[in-house]
Amino acid sequence: MKPKPIKLVTKKALEIFKPLAEQGDAAAQFNLGNMYLYGEGVPQDYAEAAKWYRKAAEQGDAEAQAMLGLMYLNGEGVPQENVQAHKWFNLSASRSQGKDHDYAVDSRNDTEKRMTPTQVAEAQKLAREWEPKPAQ
Length: 136
What we know:
CATH topology: Serine Threonine Protein Phosphatase 5, Tetratricopeptide repeat
Mean pLDDT: 92
Distance between the termini: 41 Å
CATH superfamily: Tetratricopeptide repeat domain
Shape: globular
CATH class: Mainly Alpha
Strand content: under 5%
Order of helices and strands: HHHHHHH
Number of domains: 1
Structural class: mainly alpha
Largest sheet: none
Radius of gyration: 16 Å
């Protein structure tokens, strides 16, 4: 029986992305986060997905910021926390364009509807004070 091509692709992707991600490459970290989120080539693990998304998000990767916001919104791999979700969606919105920007804005606005004015102010403050971190 021949292996399915997708398994070979995901195995090769893991071989490529993991070392790059460990060296701090934000794109590889984002892709590794996707692999763990969807269980592609690795066992599905939301906490591991959140770990890799966070590393990329902290470097300023807008897609990773949106995914980390979604994980906080849904409490997948991290505690459910609307303030953090709003912060990451807000940061993503400020760094993305087109459909990615629209998704981040819509997600931030939807999250805001679940929050108190104090929580919104806290999330906005966190986003304003946020600065990208060096690769890790």
